């Protein structure tokens, strides 16, 4: 398996942990999910400077070395795995996990349960499948590097997720919205804009 695909699979395996949000919603309801996502968001924001700024990590490792050299080894292993899956723009900027948790927090707070579950699930699974299918089987490439095969994987997975929750029409339109946003990687980050695009689209469809 090519190294690029291995790295993408590792990145998307971590990305799929985002499915804990809709799972939490189904199991425990809106209020506990809000608490869970808010806690995750705050934790990510607090830890983000340590991911970006190497000097901060070095200071921690110096202190940990006094307590336990094994802990330092553990930190360095985590550092290596993070560097392996980081996008180039994330090395000195905000990571995808921060954008993802912020979008999830907004969606769980402002939208109904069905919309929140659908939007977060589709954005998580669709993004992972689009990347893995695109890198593994993509033969028809666009100028931005995306592939027709990857976009189709996103769209089909979205229809499968949304249809049982909100019907086929909403599934097709909502999935199309997510596919377009994923394709163009709309700012500030597609991990944020993707979820919001699907949620807003599904919300507007409830008036039709």
UniProtKB/TrEMBL annotation:
> Care to name a GO molecular-function term for this sequence?
nucleotidyltransferase activity
Record keywords: Membrane, Nucleotidyltransferase, Transferase, Transmembrane, Transmembrane helix
From which domain of life does this come?
Answer: Archaea
Bilayer-spanning residue ranges:
12-28, 34-53, 93-111, 117-134, 154-180
Keyword match Transmembrane helix: yes
**Protein name in the entry:** Phosphatidate cytidylyltransferase
